[in-house]
Amino acid sequence: MLNRWRSGQMPVTAQTWPPWSKNSGLKRQHNVEYWMMGSFLYDGDGREISKAMSRERPKRGVLPLAQENIEKLKKVVEEGNYYGAQQMYKSISARYVSAQRYMEALDILHSGACIQLEHGQVTCGVELAVLYVDILVKARVPYNDENLG
């Protein structure tokens, strides 16, 4: 990004960043370095080399074994928090799917559907069963008696 308020083609730095207009209606939400991440990188002659727009994403944590989540969610259902458990089943299984750990996602959904149905929560159980089938299709798991339990 070139500093248009100064003469010449000078790259903008934290020290040469133009003052923020108080009457602009905009609020300064980030520091100068944040805005400069989208700025241009320059070679020694002041020519633009490339645009640096990407910010490193934080590394995601390692997913625990499915059985740990199944046990925690079973306790939530047994406490009577059916809706909360339903949302947790859906979000946790989605994390496993995004990590391409389909079989563990299927284990979580199968367990959730059975537990919800055992507690009389038909709508919740059926919703998890439908998600189970969706993941079977997405993962291209062959349909047989062993997989359908």
TrEMBL record:
GO terms for biological process: protein insertion into ER membrane. It holds the Pfam family GET4. GO terms for cellular component: cytosol. It comes from the Eukaryota. Belongs to the GET4 family. This is Uncharacterized protein. It comes from Morus notabilis.
